[in-house]
Design goal:
Radius of gyration: 31 Å
Number of strands: 12
Number of helices: 26
CATH topology of the largest domain: Multidrug efflux transporter AcrB transmembrane fold
Largest sheet: 4 strands, antiparallel
Distance between the termini: 25 Å
CATH class of the largest domain: Mainly Alpha
CATH architecture of the largest domain: Up-down Bundle
Mean pLDDT: 87
CATH superfamily of the largest domain: Multidrug efflux transporter AcrB transmembrane domain
Strand order of the largest sheet: 3-4-2-5
Shape: elongated
Low-confidence stretches: none
Oligomer: single chain
């Protein structure tokens, strides 16, 4: 019996494709099993090709660092080794012997260029005020990605001594982020699949109907990890792409499966198994294709970012959504064709209970009768929920995103407590001159710059070739460096070796501020605002400048990515629904749910609410990549539910021409599927809230919050109410556009 709302499906491309899959179902399953076997060999190797994910960007900080590295003034990698004792003093022979024993394990370590200790340099600033803590600077001639792999070996090479020892610094912090990210992924997988299995049992009510979605989810994850491994062989892929791929892969594959299985079971009582498969592909499969396209378009926005982390997450996300789509349109219909009526085998609850739509029928009727009563308070609620985002502060990951038990986090916290916020990560300035930095005019410009830097609020001291003594004047330095070899001052030789005396020299600016703080960024901005002297260029770099530049670089691109995503999704939805109003409404609704989730994240992670419950310590800022990632991921995922709902509504509207009835019946028929699919994705993304890395925790929780709001408040209430108010205007498009839009 033909569904009155799906006339003429037999002639559609999707219906014919569904018939082909059904009639070749065993061959389709066999091919996918072969692909699975090959993927299972490659997937476990994915970790070996993943990079740090932070990469390099074309910024002033990067240029300054390149100049200093090219002049061999700084090493590409610096590790900080912190030593502390409750009883011994750093100056005691026993303390020194223990430090030297610990460092002896690094003798001959590949890439090690040198080690600075208080005992070798005589610099008392390497010792804490209480005399019980010191830190050692170890310089390595390796890049960041090599350093991340090197850190565990450095720790293993340090023998146990009767002191507290921590290896920290930028490379160690990022290495620990990678390690804990992998552990978060494994933990999430352990938590996710049992929860999803239970949820699907409650949704479908039979054991047999759960098998297909779980199989698709597991297949999709394996294929995706194998694909990321292959991509990692030819391009840089971030370690974070693995977590995001898991989240998106399991969630999307099961979402698509849920929609397909639900439609198949709906068609089965009145059709043959073959016809049910064909109709399912022609209706739910078509909706899945367009929802996958919108998700891919959302993730495409990440490809225009220079940051490896964002770009590789976009690549990984596109791969996993594409894989999930292929599985849903080929393997899943083949499995359904094999299972047929056995899809309802092994029930765990009465069929009448899990097939009931009475709640959604009643809700749809109530929303249609009271649209303004639904719309106004919900819009106010979502806007209020997003309000905290107006006070968002953005930062880049540092030690604070790690759990307290991480070695680099503990070492950094001890160093900050004992030596001050800015002591371990000074702001660096590369001063360069074609005439050489020791030329009289260059020395004068560097001298003026150094004195101006020292006068900035929060700067504790400045170190450079023109800061040997406060008693030496500008002219004195010119005379001193005219013949440095005959100056008779050992400080001159040390200064030139430490800071450089060729075409480039380094200035170190120490502050009292944390590297991620607004105050530190303010100092960087003031240093860049200083007027350079004639013939000398200054490039402000170091950790604070690099973090600030990374944020600025990302958010200079973000508006373009946002425009690309919204315009492309608008055009796709305009083609799908042959309306200029529906796409605009969809984009506005998506924006509201994303804005609300942004506010919730600021409330939790920036302001520090629920720290105990979620087991984290607030860093006082929102990780800068989160708003970008959430928008690009959520814009597509949320559009899934919009497409699922609107495709069914339009199916009915095309048959009846009654907007109110089609909205009500569309909500009734899809409400349970949409909320069930959302529940699965909330469980998958919410499982990352149990992770150790604050970034992963916030990303998972942010997606869970947004999807929950989107599937309940927005799709089940706000969208139907707005469509009821708009009436036939929902489906309006100019006449000339109707003529050119494909059907």
């Amino acid at each position: 019996m033909e569904d009155p709302f799906t006339p003429g499906l037999e002639n559609s491309l999707f219906y014919r494709f569904g018939r082909w899959v059904y009639r070749h179902r065993w061959a389709v399953i066999g091919v996918w099993l072969l692909v699975l076997a090959l993927s299972a060999i490659l997937a476990p190797r994915v970790g070996s090709v993943l990079k740090s994910g932070f990469g390099e960007q074309s910024t002033e900080a990067r240029k300054g660092l390149d100049l200093l590295e090219a002049s061999e003034i700084v090493s590409p990698t610096l590790l900080v080794i912190v030593f502390s004792s409750d009883d011994l003093l750093v100056e005691s022979p026993g303390y020194r012997a223990r430090v030297e024993t610990a460092l002896s394990g690094l003798v001959g370590f590949p890439g090690l260029e040198g080690v600075d200790t208080v005992y070798g340099t005589g610099d008392d600033r390497l010792v804490s005020e209480d005399g019980h803590t010191t830190y050692v600077l170890a310089y390595f001639d390796v890049d960041l990605d090599e350093a991340l792999d090197m850190v565990p070996e450095v720790r293993d090479r340090i023998p146990p001594v009767d002191l507290d020892v921590w290896v920290t610094g930028g490379a160690a912090i990022f290495s620990d982020i990678n390690q804990f990210t992998g552990e978060d992924l494994r933990r999430a997988e352990i938590i996710t699949f049992p929860l999803v299995a239970v949820a699907l049992l409650l949704i479908f009510g039979t054991v047999a109907s759960v098998v297909a979605p779980l199989a698709i989810g597991a297949f999709g994850l394996t294929f995706t990890l194998a694909a990321i491994y292959l991509l990692g062989l030819v391009t840089d892929m971030s370690v974070f792409s693995m977590n995001t791929a898991t989240l998106l892969g399991v969630g999307a594959a099961i979402d698509y499966s849920l929609l397909m299985v639900s439609r198949f079971r709906e068609e089965l009582p009145s059709r043959s198994v073959e016809d049910s498969v064909c109709v399912t592909v022609a209706t739910a499969g078509r909706a899945i294709l367009f929802s996958a396209v919108t998700t891919v378009l959302g993730l495409t926005g990440l490809l225009i970012f220079e940051l490896t982390m964002l770009r590789s997450i976009g690549i990984g996300g596109i791969v996993v959504i594409s894989v999930s789509l292929m599985l849903a349109l080929t393997l899943l219909p083949a499995i359904l064709g094999v299972m047929g009526g056995r899809i309802d085998s092994l029930p765990v609850m009465p069929k009448a209970l899990y097939n009931r739509n009475l709640f959604w029928r009643a809700l749809a009727s109530w929303v249609m009768s009271h649209p303004l009563l639904v719309m106004v308070p919900l819009v106010v609620f979502l806007l209020a929920l997003g309000t905290p985002f107006l006070n968002a502060r953005l930062g880049i990951p540092w030690a604070g995103v790690l759990p307290i038990e991480a070695e680099s986090r503990r070492g950094w916290d001890v160093a900050v407590e004992k030596f001050g916020e800015g002591e371990l990560a000074p702001i660096l300035v590369a001063a360069t001159s074609e005439n050489g930095v020791l030329a009289p005019e260059s020395l004068g410009a560097i001298y003026d710059y150094s004195r101006a830097a020292a006068s900035i609020e929060g700067v504790t001291r400045v170190e450079s070739i023109v800061d040997l003594s406060p008693d030496i004047t500008r002219d004195g330095y010119r005379m001193l460096y005219a013949e440095p070899s005959t100056s008779g001052m050992p400080e001159v030789a040390y200064s030139l070796e430490e800071f450089g005396g060729g075409e480039t020299t380094m200035i170190r600016v120490y502050t009292t501020f944390d590297i991620n703080s607004e105050q530190a960024r303010g100092v960087v901005k003031e240093l860049r605002a200083l007027v350079p002297g004639e013939g000398v260029s200054f490039f402000v770099t170091g950790a604070s400048a690099s973090l600030m530049d990374a944020v600025d670089a990302m958010y200079s691109v973000f508006p373009w990515a946002l425009a690309l995503v919204t315009v492309s999704v608008y055009l796709v939805l305009m083609v799908l629904f042959r309306s200029v109003v529906i796409p605009l409404k969809a984009i506005v609704m998506n924006g509201m749910s994303i804005f609300a989730s942004y506010g919730a994240l600021v409330f939790i992670f920036q302001e520090g609410h629920f720290e105990g419950l979620l087991n984290f310590t607030s860093t006082g800022f929102l990780e800068a990549t989160l708003p970008i990632l959430l928008f690009m991921i959520l814009f597509g995922l949320s559009m899934d539910y919009e497409v699922f709902l609107l495709v069914r509504i339009k199916e009915i509207y095309d048959a009846t021409g009654d907007n109110t009835a089609s909205v009500a019946l569309g909500l009734e028929r899809t409400g349970r599927v949409i909320t069930s699919a959302a529940l699965v994705l909330v469980l998958v993304s919410g499982s990352f809230a149990f992770g150790d890395i604050v970034i992963i925790k916030a990303l998972g929780l942010g997606i869970a919050i947004a999807i929950f709001l989107d599937s309940t408040i927005v799709r089940a209430l706000l969208v139907p109410a707005l469509m009821r108010v708009l009436g036939d205007l929902n489906w309006w498009a100019p006449g000339f556009l109707k003529k050119v839009l494909p059907r």
